[in-house]
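Q: Given only this backbone (364 positions), what sequence would you predict?
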């Protein structure tokens, strides 16, 4: 049974976020809440209905999240000499979090995910509001339209936050936006394809999340410290394997994660037909009988609990799950070996090491 499989041993014990993440998360959340409250007041004076998307964005921002991207940016910037009290640094951290908010809101809409962080996703919440207030037209269309606009609002605010950053930081931020957009397009097209190669699945993992979560935020942090050109290669050697490990862990949680921890339905990626590296490996390693089972169930949005469990059992039985855990371990080791080559303060080096451990062992 899955409970007896040692590949899932890491799921037995909750891994707490280290202080290096929690402290930055609290500061970013506080600043974002203050900013959005001010925006709510400013726009409500013009028209009370302007408050709708801003309220939705504010609720999303304070609903949780690890704020990994701001933390990776902060510890790189400060570890390379930036002033921790510089308002430009804080606004950049806020921008990275708002950009992530935009991506999550639109991702939930594209995936038709009803839940995010244990609460109704933005499009679901607006659709519910439509039904409760008996508004005209389609509740689904209203929910989808408002979610797009709330996501776009987060995107616009994110851009606004980096206005005063130096030119190199803004260039890197622009590249980050392109990479995550194109990576997401690969993910969407892959979900509708009849199959995918392992190389394509790896590229999706790298561009949809890997570079976006660790490498580019660290590059931006280095740029804010005027240390980008001196540190680019060293940052990449640390960040790329760690970013890949982050996404591979995410892929495992999308199939095997526990709902009370991930705050999403069990087996969400199986219902959505996500063509991840885990799925690609399982298809490559499975028997003909297992492939028949897989093809009959994978990507069905009405999968029952027992059908999800059958797919989980198949994936674990092929050895793909164990192979993924081994790959994550190898990527983490590569990243830790590269950490010593980064020119950082000792405090920042310790913080990034703690964050790396959390990224690969987290349960949500």
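A: Predicted residues:
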């Amino acid at each position: 049974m899955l409970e007896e499989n040692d590949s899932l041993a890491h799921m037995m014990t909750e891994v707490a976020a280290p202080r290096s993440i929690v402290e930055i998360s609290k500061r970013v959340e506080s600043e974002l809440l203050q900013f959005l409250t001010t925006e709510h007041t400013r726009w409500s004076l013009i028209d009370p209905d302007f408050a709708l998307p801003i309220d939705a964005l504010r609720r999303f921002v304070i609903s949780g999240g690890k704020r990994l991207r701001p933390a990776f940016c902060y510890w790189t910037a400060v570890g390379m000499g930036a002033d921790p009290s510089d308002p430009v640094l804080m606004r950049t951290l806020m921008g990275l979090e708002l950009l992530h908010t935009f991506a999550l809101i639109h991702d939930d809409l594209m995936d038709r995910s009803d839940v995010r962080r244990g609460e109704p996703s933005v499009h679901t919440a607006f659709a519910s509001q439509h039904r409760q207030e008996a508004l005209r037209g389609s509740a689904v269309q209203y929910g989808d339209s408002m979610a797009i606009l709330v996501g776009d609002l987060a995107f616009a605010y994110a851009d606004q936050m980096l206005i005063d950053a130096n030119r190199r930081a803004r260039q890197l931020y622009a590249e980050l936006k392109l990479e995550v957009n194109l990576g997401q397009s690969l993910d969407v097209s892959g979900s509708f394809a009849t199959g995918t190669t392992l190389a394509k699945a790896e590229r999706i993992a790298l561009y949809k999340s890997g570079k976006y979560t660790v490498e580019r935020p660290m590059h931006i942090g280095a740029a804010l410290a005027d240390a980008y050109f001196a540190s680019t290669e060293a940052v990449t050697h640390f960040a790329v394997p760690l970013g890949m490990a982050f996404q591979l862990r995410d892929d495992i949680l999308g199939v095997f994660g526990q709902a009370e921890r991930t705050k999403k339905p069990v087996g969400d990626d199986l219902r959505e037909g996500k063509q991840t590296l885990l799925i690609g490996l399982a298809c490559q390693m499975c028997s003909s009988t297992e492939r028949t089972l897989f093809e009959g169930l994978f990507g069905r949005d009405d999968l029952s609990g027992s059908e999800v469990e059958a797919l989980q059992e198949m994936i674990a039985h092929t050895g793909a799950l164990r192979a993924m855990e081994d790959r994550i371990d190898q990527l983490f080791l590569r990243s830790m070996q590269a950490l010593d080559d980064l020119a950082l303060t000792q405090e920042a080096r310790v913080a990034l090491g703690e964050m790396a451990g959390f990224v690969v062992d987290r349960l949500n």
